[in-house]
Design goal:
It is globular and about 65 Å long. Helix 1 (18-32) crosses helix 11 (368-382). It starts with 5 loop residues before the first strand and ends with a helix. It has an eight-stranded mixed β-sheet, with helices on both faces. Strands 11-10-9-12-13-14 form a six-stranded parallel β-sheet, with helices on both faces. The chain is an alpha/beta fold. Helices cover 36% and strands 17% of the residues.
Length: 383
């Protein structure tokens, strides 16, 4: 192939921002490995995030109305309706007509993102008509949200059978396997491969401020209760220096209320740069258990004496973070305290338990970015 191989990468975020940062890391890795990346971005734009892509195509955005993920809104805050969904499908088809991808990679779907199935069907049918047909890949994280309605898992397998050539699982199979949260993994086993975990590159920038305890709430959309409880716990442990990182999406009133209540040994910030490196300088990390933050905590466990307490978001019917936290606790990597059981007393008890954890001598595969690029290249070579 004389020209650079091209990847069309479709992704979006609906509330939490972890998907976007994982996509950003993958795109940077693909570009570094000689791929040209075209992006179709289906959620609200995050102005502070840049991508190493050659082109970026923004769809009319959608988002979740709240933490329950039961209702979805358009750019005007109106509930999604059929005309808007058809409009997005037309936008995707027009964008695809302009591009010449060798690979089409779709984040989460069909394992999640069911609300975009109409536009996905339009895109995938257009891909099937293209000659030569691009390789179609579903890119998924380590843990899937539990599908409670009968037939949904079977429906996912039907989509994979009909439209997808590969499933790229961003996990280390020795730590978390797809089978643990996808009951019919055996049906598609010939199509899925593990990349290892997708983590940011190790930073070479020195950490300017060191803290004993770092509390991080990811993007912040679900983090208010964790931060408020951690602040109350911090007031009981003034012998530790604390940093609370709220994320950009914590409600402004909640942020101000926290800021007004912080004693001198507690620092509150919207954003803590190089979170993984900050953790490595701390004694304790307290966080929810979204994919990206969990990977930062695992890297800190590997490289330092920092130990983790995970407070997975397990309300509103959400199971993904809880399953990840339980698996990592079973492996000896952290203490799990579900948000539904969170109190300041239990949080402090969990901190003491975490400090007693030994380092797990385990060779976790954190090279998910490079491995993903190599897998894509190998599939192209086979083609």
């Amino acid at each position: 192939m004389d020209r650079k191989p091209r990847i069309l990468f479709y992704f979006l975020h609906l509330l939490g921002v972890g998907h976007v940062f994982r996509a950003q890391r993958l795109i940077e890795g693909f570009s570094r490995h000689g791929f040209a990346v075209d992006v179709i971005y289906g959620g609200e734009v995050l102005e502070e995030v840049e991508f190493a892509a050659e082109t970026i195509h923004f769809l009319s955005p959608i988002r979740a109305a709240d933490n329950s993920y039961s209702t979805y809104l358009d750019a005007d805050g109106q509930q999604l309706d059929k005309p808007f969904q058809l409009q997005r499908a037309d936008e995707i088809e027009a964008i695809f007509d302009q591009l010449t991808p060798d690979i089409v990679m779709i984040e989460a779907f069909p394992f999640g993102r069911r609300m975009v199935r109409l536009e996905m069907e339009v895109l995938l049918k257009a891909v099937q008509k293209r000659q030569p047909k691009p390789i179609v890949i579903s890119s998924v994280r380590d843990i899937l949200q539990e599908r409670k309605k009968p037939g949904r898992v079977e429906e996912t397998c039907d989509w994979i059978d009909q439209y997808f050539d590969q499933v790229l699982v961003h996990s280390d199979s020795s730590v978390i396997q797809l089978d643990s949260t996808f009951p019919l993994a055996s049906r598609i086993r010939d199509k899925f491969s593990y990349s290892g975990f997708v983590v940011p590159p190790r930073s070479t920038i020195p950490v300017m401020h060191q803290f004993d305890v770092i509390v991080s709430a990811g993007g912040g959309a679900f983090g208010g209760e964790l931060l408020a409880t951690a602040l109350n716990a911090a007031k009981q442990r003034s012998d530790w220096s604390w940093c609370l990182s709220s994320g950009p999406n914590l409600d402004a009133d909640q942020f101000r209320s926290l800021a007004d209540s912080c004693p001198p040994h507690v620092t509150l910030t919207r954003y803590l740069p190089d979170l993984a490196e900050q953790m490595k300088q701390a004694r304790l990390s307290i966080s929810q258990c979204g994919y990206n933050t969990a990977m930062d905590a695992l890297a800190a466990h590997r490289d330092s004496a920092c130990r983790a307490v995970f407070v997975p978001y397990d309300t509103e019917g959400q199971s993904e973070q809880l399953r990840r936290a339980e698996i990592l606790q079973k492996g000896g990597y952290a203490i799990c305290l579900p948000q539904s059981s969170l109190t300041e007393e239990r949080l402090l008890q969990s901190c003491e338990q975490a400090l007693k954890l030994d380092r797990v001598d385990h060779q976790i595969d954190f090279d998910g970015v490079n491995n993903s690029a190599k897998l894509l290249q190998s599939w192209l070579n086979e083609r």
